[in-house]
Amino acid sequence: MTAAKYTSRLQKGGALLDDMRVLVRFWRDGAEAEVIEDVIRKNVPGKASRARVRETLRRAFLPRFVHGRPPDAWRIVRPLEDVGAPREVVAPVYYWLTARAEPLLYDFACDFLSQQKSRGRGVVSTADAVGFVRGRLQQTDERWSHAVTVRVARGLLAALRDFGLLTGKVKKRLAPTYLPLDAFAHITFALAQEGASGERLLQHPDWRLFLLTPSEVEHLFLEAHRHHLLDYQAAGGIIRIEFPIQTLVEAAHVVATRAH
Predict the structure, then answer these.
(1) Which of 129, 58, 60, 155 is nearest to 98 (CA)?
(2) Cα angle at 222 between 220 and 228, to 5 degrees?
C-alpha cells in the first residue's frame, strides 16, 4: 500500500463508523451527483449544517465507500446492514474497507501495529504515530506541517480505537486480537470475488490489518470450515477454498441466520 498517495483526511474523520453506516444504508445506484444532493438535502447523517454533511461525504464516505478500493465498496457492507447484522460483525468489514481506502491507516496497522504485537509491546503513543507518519512522508512527495502531522496521527489512533484495534482514550494499548468468524467469512468471500483463491486467500496481506499471524488466519479458516461457512482443504501444499454461497447478499443472510 505504500505506493499509494497518503492523504491528511484522517485528521478530520477517524472511523466515523456510525456516520458511514447511516450513509451506506441510504446510498443507492444512480447518478452520484443526484444521490449526494439527496443526502445533503435530507441531512441523512444528522449533522449541524449542510456544510458538515458535505465535509463528511467529501473527506470520508466518498473516498472510502464510493471511490475506494474496490470502487463502490458500499455494496460489500450494504447486505449486512440490510439483514441487521450485529455491530461486532459489521465493524470489522467497515474497518477493512476504510483501511484499503486510507493507505496511511493500512500501513500503520500492518507495518507498525503488527510489529508492536510481535515484539510484545502493547503501548502505542501519539509520538509513535507522529514518527511513523513523518517517516513515511519522507518516502513520498507529500509535505505536511507539524500541526497537520500531529492531527493526522491523532486521527489515525482514534480510528484504530473506534474500530477496536486499540483501547484507551489517552494512553492507548493494543487490544486483544479478535476477528468474529462471520466477519472473517464475509471478508474472505469478498476477497475471493476480487479473484483471490487458494493460498492467495490464506496468505492475503489484508489479514495483517487485524494483526493476525499466519497460524491465526489458518485457525479461522478451519473454524469457518467447521461451521460450514466455507470449504477449506489443504493437502500436499495445495490449498482449496470454496464457498456454499454465490453472492454477498447470500453471505449476509447466512450471518443473519447464525445471529438468531
Answers:
(1) 60
(2) 100
CATH T-level assignment (fold) for domain 181-259: Arc Repressor Mutant, subunit A (1.10.10)
- E-strand ranges in the chain read 123-124, 166-167, 172-174, 231-235, 238-242
- The per-residue pLDDT for 232 is 97
User: What end-to-end distance do the CA atoms of the chain give, in Å?
Assistant: 38
Instruction: Determine contact, residues 97/107, Cβ cutoff 8 Å.
Output: no
Q: Does the pLDDT of residue 43 top 60, yes or no?
A: yes
Residue-wise DSSP of 46-80: --SSHHHHHHHIIIIIIIIIISSSSTTTHHHHHHH
Instruction: Read off the C-alpha cell for 92.
Output: 470489522
pLDDT per residue over 191-205, tens digit each?
999 999 999 999 999
**Domain locations along the chain:** 181-259
The pLDDT-based confidence of 57 (bands split at 50, 70, 90) is: very high
Cα–Cα distance measured from residue 193 to residue 191, given in angstroms and rounded to the nearest whole number: 5
